[in-house]
Structures are given as C-alpha cells and as structure tokens.
Amino acid sequence: MSELRFTEQHEWVRIDGDVATVGISKYAAEQLGDVVYVELPEPGRKVGQGGEAAVVESVKAASEVYAPIGGEVTDANPALAGDPASVNADPEGEGWFFKMKGVNAAELAKLMTSAQYAEYVKGL
Amino acid sequence: MTEGYEMPERRFSCPCNLWSGPLMADTIETLKTPLHALHVARGAKMVPFAGYEMPLHYAPGILKEHLHTRAAAGLFDVSHMGQAFLSGREPARALERLTPADFAGLKEGMQRYGLLLNDQGTIKDDFMASRLAGEAALYMVVNAGTKEQDFAYIAERLKGKATLAPQRERALLALQGPKSARVLARHAREAASLSFMKVARMHVAGVPAIVSRSGYTGEDGFEISIEAGDAELLARALLAEPEVLPIGLGARDSLRLEAGLCLYGHDIDETTDPVEANLAWSIAKRRKLEKNFPAAEKIMDRLFNGTARKRVGIRPDGRAPAREGTQIADKTGRVVGRITSGGFSPTLNAPIAMGYVETGLAEDGTEIDLIVRDKPMPAHVAPMPFVPHRYKRAAKVGVVGS
Fold first, then answer.
1. Do the Cβ atoms of A57 and B320 come within 8 Å?
2. How far is A24 from B228, CA to CA, in rounded Å?
C-alpha cells in the first residue's frame, strides 16, 4: 500500500496498483466539524485532476471535494450514506469517499507528501 | 476541497447562515465581550459575528453542544446583543409608536416579544421588552447586528417622549436546557419561581442581575443580564455545575432553527412584513383596533386579505441539507420561493429549513423541490417548530375559581 498524497484543498489520494482511493484529510474533517451528508460521484463518471467530484456537508456548511488526480470513478463508499460521521471518525481510512481507475500516476507529482502537507497545514 | 456555497472567501470558518447583520465594514477592530478570554481559555473557535469576535463552538463541536443543550444545560454568551433602558413619562406608550405589540398593557414582572417596524411596515428588528417590578423604565434587548441602528432609530423617533439609554457596560448570558432551572436555583433561589416570560431583579451567585425565564432555543431557560465586570465570575460559577457546558453560536443557530424561531437578517428583514413572516401573533388585538403603529393600514389590509408569500417550515425528503439562498420550486419547476435558513437538525437527525413560498403552496404537506447544486431535491412544507418547545409556562388558572 502506497502512502497518501495531499492537495492544498485538503483531499488525499492513495494508489494501490491501478486503483486510486480518495478522501479528505484529518485536518479538513476537524475544520468541517460533524459531517452529516456526503454526495458522492456515480461509478463510471470521468473526472479530471482538480475537477468537482463530491460534496461534503457538515452541521456548519457545504464544501466541494475535488479529484486530486484524474480518472474514472469505480466505487463510491457505501458506508457514508448511512454513517457520514465515519468521515470524522477515520477520515484517512474508513471514511474514504470514492475509488478511481485509469489514473495517470504522473499527476501525483503535483501533490504533497504527508510531511509536506503537515508543514502546509501548520502555516494555515 | 473548498467551502463553496455561501461565502467561498471564508473557508471552514463560517457557518454562513449565522450572520444577524453585516459586519461593521468601517470598523477594523472587532469587539470583544467581557467573556472573550474565557472563551479562548475554554478552547473556543472564535469567528467574527456582527462586529464581535464570538465563539462558534468549543472542543465538543456544534452537534454535541446542540444535543447537550436539549438534554441538560448550555451556557451561551450573548453579550453582543443590545441592552437598553427606555425611560420617560410613559415609555411603553412611546415604544408602541414603533411596534404593533402591546407594551402599555404589559404587566409588572413580565417580558414580551415585539417587532420594530419602519414606516413601510417592514421589520427593522425583533426585540424583547420587560417591565421590571416597581420600575418605570422598560428594559429592552435587541439583536447584535442591528443594535446601533435600532438605538439611533428609537432615540430619534421617540425624542421628547422617551429616552433610550443603551447599556453598553452590561453583559448577557443565556442558560438554556431542561436542567437550567435546577442549576440556576443553586445560585438564585428565586429564579425557580419565575415562569416563562417572567422577569425580575435578583442576585445570582452574589451578583446583581436581571433574570428572565426566556431564551432562543425552544427549551426552558433563562437570560441573565449583569454588569460586564461580573460576567466572568458568574459564567465560571455556572460552568462549574456538572450539567452545564459552554455553547457556541453554531449550536445557538441550529437550536433556534429547530425551534422555528426567526434569525434577523435572514428570515426577517426590511423586505418582510409581520404578516408574511407569520409573526402576526405579535400584533396585539388592542393595537389592531387603535391602528396606531407604523403602516397600520397596510398591515391590517394584509391581515385581512392575505399576503403573496408566507414563511414556512420545510423538511427535505432526503438527507442533504438545503442552505440559505436555495431556490424553492413547485413540481412544474417554477421558482416559488427561497430558503432563508437551512441546515441539519441534530435532534431529528435530518435536514430542516425555513423560507418563503407563494401563499398557495404554504399548506403543510405541500410537495416542493429545492434546487440544490442545480438539481431538484424533493421536500415538503412542514409545521414548525420542528422540535416541540418545552417552556415552563405558568399553570393556567381554572375558570372554576374566577
């Protein structure tokens, strides 16, 4: 399993073989507060890097989630419909949003490593 | 990820439906309430609100703070709200020039809700006014975002008839929730004898206070006005009680929305009148007969002939919240209104909203669509409050003994 890469908009992506898994960072989940609803993309939808892919709603507000890299959506996390709070409980694990195939690993170069992201968040 | 729907420039920090008025654009410095240091010490996330830096939430977060208030007791700092005394020969009569509520008939020791109207009969603000036992002056509380303009308006319009004295050195705490009475009784035995909308001066934790049994959560509770210098001592005394947690503005907003209560600047403003806002209950019978409040003819006409639109409660059928500004459409796709407050109800574990719709669609149960992210989302017009009020009203006096 490869390590997570992060965007400045607080999404993460992890590549396992030819599958990319996407979610929002622990920092984002903490800032949003209690997540009450997640709108996920339909399988089959193609998104480009930085394209709108999902919406996460907390008690506070609605926020867009952008695709950290481009690809074709294969799965939306079925657990989030019944238990959106799992985004808060385990944002970088069980609280993943969607999976993609057909990704271009070269797009990862634009993203931050965990260490870089931790530094970035410190500066916010 | 970016927060995009209401105010994209204020990422993460802003529950954008919380504004009760514009930030004072010409003031760079944000104001602080006397409890500012205590909020920070308790780990609050502080946000600008109506010119003040206020706690949005503390460590537990909005959802838990909301549920705690419904289950036990929550302490809110509402010191940013405007407090004032209105004195004069007949201050209540004078005030009635600007509101259709009955303040001349308000009994000693009672508080009442009123709408401050402009000459067009639309709503400049909503407020509470109290008649304290043995005192000639009325004690008023107005909204934070509108207080300076309210004070100027009242002072100007009542010149020669009444004198308004803003109480900028007073703080205001709200203790809300089913356990608030037992908590407050430990610090002020007399508090327990007040019923809903009663008000009295008393000492709380040794501090002189004006205490009313009221609030804006739909729960039993109290609002406690004290001198600014006493605020921290009192807040610490109440927070030391095991039932009490500090509660931020985030939960204050979701609690009042569940209770079906209007937020000024969102659900009511100078484009809405009392009738379409469903606040005509605050127009007293005597005042309707006297017709001596602002735009009385126009408002009476609307009372008799109806309005083109009505403020209603809305329950989305799915789980997605519909936020302020969301368009409301009928089942043919025609836009028939707009959401003015919308969010998630922690008590119902479902989205709730209020807004204005054409009167023909205002019946409870009417099927509508909410246009969320360009898609119609089915919803129903629903009765308010969404969560029943639990006020401690005085026992009704039976007709038998009268």
1. yes
2. 43
Q: In one letter, which amino acid is B181? A: A
Measured N-to-C along each axis, helices B249-258 and B62-71 cross at an angle, to the nearest 10 degrees, of 60
Backbone angles phi, psi at B260, to 5 degrees: 75, 20
Which secondary-structure segment (H or E) carries B350? strand B350-358
Over residues B222-250, the pLDDT tens digits come to 999 999 999 999 999 999 999 999 999 99
pLDDT at B281: 97
Test mutation, A8, A27, A59, chain B, max B CBs within 10 A? A59
Q: What are phi and psi of A121, to 5 degrees?
A: -65, -35
**CB atoms A61 and B3 under 8 Å:** yes
pLDDT score recorded for residue B319? 94
Please report the pLDDT score of residue B396 as a whole number.
67
Could you say which architecture CATH assigns to the domain A5-103?
Beta Barrel (2.40)
Pairing of strands A62-66, B350-358: unpaired
Kindly list the structural domains of chain B, giving each domain's residue range(s) and its CATH number in brackets, ordered by start.
Answer: 16-73+169-258 (3.30.1360.120), 308-382 (2.40.30.110)
**ipTM summary value:** 0.90
Q: Which pLDDT score, from 0 to 100, does residue A105 have?
A: 84
> What CA–CA distance (Å, rounded) separates B214 from B111?
9
Question: Which residues on neighbouring strands pair with residue A6, listed in sequence order?
Answer: A12, A112
Q: Amino acid identity of B177? A: G
Contacts of B50 (CB under 8 A, 6+ apart): B19, B20, B21, B23, B80, B143, B144, B145
Q: Is A64 within 8 Å of B14 when comparing Cβ atoms? A: no
Tens of pLDDT, residue by residue over B316-360, are 999 999 999 999 999 999 999 999 999 999 999 999 999 999 999
Whether residue A62 and residue B3 make contact (CB cut-off 8 A), yes or no, is yes
